[in-house]
Design goal:
This protein is of the alpha+beta class. About 35% of the residues lie in helices and about 15% in strands. The strands form two sheets. Strands 4, 5, 6, 7, 8 and 10 form a six-stranded mixed β-sheet that branches. The chain has a four-stranded antiparallel β-sheet with strand order 2-1-3-9. The radius of gyration is 22 Å and the shape is globular.
């Protein structure tokens, strides 16, 4: 595979930042890329795009009203367009970048992120061999085919594909094989997503029970539907979005006894469909209750 430093350049121009050179090479072979900042995280949204106020314009999705030229919107900033990658708006990000990431789903790929030796051992026993990339703590197994990303599908195993990014480490070894059903079925079969929402998470009813004293059942139903849709529509900062939605739902209905496990389960399902693990859902729900003094 061609290495990034073999890219021809005009000797009269200064050398490209190393991470930008790598990004251009990856873009040239069809991987949508983006810079990662300290902590190996995407660059945060600019003030205009904060909290998706701009309406978003991810490069890998249908364009919206946002015309921000900066590498905003996390994974959705990933692009194969060299004009965008080398634009002045991205220059500062490349100077500060500590690594390059790519959007697997945008290239029709799925990365099985094996984060522990135990997870690697499990994959070797249960998954078809494919291209393998050694990581600091484990391995990335890369398959041809995209699917919904999911975190924590089993101990030490995350799936990175659509609406996610994976850090570029190396070309890896071995041929890429087709995404198997064994991987596609992990979000369904995994214990972290198959468990029901614990009853303990339900908000205790106000003494005397009964329906919400200040809102109709239709209002609650509409609110839960809108809350779930807000999570589903989020393009970035999924964890923060889930927490804010949980906080809003609890603020409106958390003390009147009308919120049931069924309602909570719908919110958890929407969050997990965006890649949140059950543990993160539980933590967000607990933190929202704590914030409201429940």
């Amino acid at each position: 595979m061609t290495q990034a430093n073999t890219f021809p350049r005009d000797p009269a121009r200064p050398a490209l930042p190393a991470h930008l050179a790598t990004a251009l090479w990856l873009a040239g072979i069809g991987l949508p890329v983006l810079p990662l900042r300290e902590g190996k995280l995407p660059f945060g949204n600019c003030p205009v795009c904060k909290e998706s106020a701009c309406g978003d314009r991810p490069h890998m999705k249908t364009p919206g009203p946002c015309q921000c030229p900066a590498p905003c919107h996390g994974w959705a900033a990933a692009t194969t367009d060299p004009d965008i990658l080398t634009s002045p708006a991205w220059a500062r990000a490349w100077r500060q970048a500590v690594a390059v990431a790519y959007h697997p789903g945008g290239a029709g790929l799925t990365v099985v992120d094996l984060d522990t030796p135990g997870a690697v051992a499990w994959a070797r026993q249960n998954l078809p061999t494919t291209k393998t990339v050694a990581t600091t703590r484990g391995e990335h197994w890369i398959y041809r085919g995209a699917m919904q990303s999911a975190n924590g599908v089993r101990d030490g195993v995350d799936l990175k594909s659509t609406m996610a990014y994976a850090r570029w480490i190396s070309p890896g070894t071995g041929p890429i094989t087709t995404l198997p059903d064994a991987v596609r079925g992990l979000p369904v079969k995994a214990p972290t997503t198959a468990r029901p929402v614990p009853v303990a998470l339900a908000v205790p009813a106000r003494a005397g029970g009964g329906q919400c004293p200040h809102r109709s059942p239709a209002y609650l139903e509409r609110g839960i539907a809108m809350a779930g849709q807000h999570i589903t529509d989020a393009h970035s900062a999924i964890h923060n979005t889930v927490y804010r939605v949980f906080l809003a739902v609890l603020s409106a209905h958390g003390r009147c006894g009308c919120l049931t496990d069924v309602h909570i389960g719908r919110l958890f399902t929407a969050a997990q469909a965006k890649g949140e693990s059950l543990r993160h859902c539980e933590d967000s729900w607990t933190n929202a209750r704590t914030k409201l003094g429940m």
